[in-house]
Amino acid sequence: MGSTQGRRERLRAETTAEIKQVALKLMATGGPDAITLRAIAREMGMTANAIYGYFATRDELVTTLINEVYTALADAVDAAWAESSAAGPADRIRTWARAFRVWALANPEGFRLIYGDPVPGYQAPEGGPAPDAAYRVCTGIAALADTAWPHVGHSHAASDFQWSDFDDGLLGKVRPAFPGLPPAGLALALRIWARLHGLVSLEIYGHLRGQTVSPDKLFEEELVQLVRSLGIRT
Amino acid sequence: MGSTQGRRERLRAETTAEIKQVALKLMATGGPDAITLRAIAREMGMTANAIYGYFATRDELVTTLINEVYTALADAVDAAWAESSAAGPADRIRTWARAFRVWALANPEGFRLIYGDPVPGYQAPEGGPAPDAAYRVCTGIAALADTAWPHVGHSHAASDFQWSDFDDGLLGKVRPAFPGLPPAGLALALRIWARLHGLVSLEIYGHLRGQTVSPDKLFEEELVQLVRSLGIRT
DNA sequence: GAGGAGACTATACGGCGTGAAGTTTTTATA
DNA sequence: TATAAAAACTTCACGCCGTATAGTCTCCTC
Fold first, then answer.
1. pLDDT score recorded for residue B118
2. Does residue A2 have a pLDDT over 60?
3. Which residue, counting CA atoms, is nearest to the C1' of nucleotide D28?
């Protein structure tokens, strides 16, 4: 009957997918707090314990979700990056940054899941979650810096970072992909990321409400100043 | 018999203080998730329900804690600001920023409480929490911009923000204190804040781990570039 | 010393994650 | 095809949580 290895595994995969999908729906509806095994099971007409056949623990489910959502973010910014391949460095950086913010605003719960305290008592299992997607986003910000680097003002290049200032972790793995990027360039990548993250996370967590009515304008101004501070000559 | 209004109220105030203190201790120990009425009561040799005599609900307790912690942060940055009153704008900005980061690193749970998803199902009651402390921190960042403004490069002044781009909320109340600060200056204040917040929150939430081994250096470099990008002539 | 207010406990409900044991359904094998 | 194994799923249970209701005890006041 079915394909290789039979239909048992197909059903299993479908159920696994449904669990994740229902969990994401619950998150979109009621925030990350709404991700409970019992609620998911209720929604699926199952018992909460049945989920343990698919995920060893609730935190493992959450980790999987983080991976899933993180991948969606990586897809979004990668797509924007690819589409702007013909543009100059300043435009590419702006495009990437806008894609990042647009995704975050469209998926605020996902953003919280990735970058905030995800879910009530969540503890990331060994090695932390989402290494693949994190690697991709990390590659993205390194690509930003790599694109800008040849055009960047000398003040950025003057900073005295060493290779030893960076972990062998994510950036260490990303590094070989950008042979032209020196330590100061990696530092620049992190700082660009932080600038974008700062504004977006303030907006997502509502700390800009009560401050400004036009976060778009503020973000665009920040992009103008970011590109300007890089010293890129257009 | 105690002072005005008797000792009954004094005991009450002491118990209230102890509840908050125990809650903060639990938070420091086991993270924001550890703030549970039952755990607090256990620690105090009481019943969980006894706490309802002091706080109407768990969220009200959390709101109070946020206020408390937020005030501590405001105290820290205000103190740094006051101490640097004799310095130039660049130094004052750096001093404030360092105080912000130092406080955050010393009180990571507090930082999460203020700027992240505080506690499992927490919903801020009407009006949101911590208006006073938020006002003070808001005043702080406005003061940063106000100090920098007269020395700031023309590119920042050129941005076309209007008064109508800002809420009547926090910044609206802060505005009168800085009559020399135009709309573009308020925008600058928010952007400076966001830059600092971005780097610090990435660090607090562990997203810089696996990236760099020297967040200090990265932060200092960001300060150098921040001051530089402001165009302040020293 | 009687009344009342305030502080606290007891009990209970529903929701949570999860462990242990049991039941039903499907698959693989003799 | 009959049967044993494995997988899927349920039931029951435990301890945690916030919180509502009702009851108890203690102290202050008149």
1. 57
2. no
3. B8
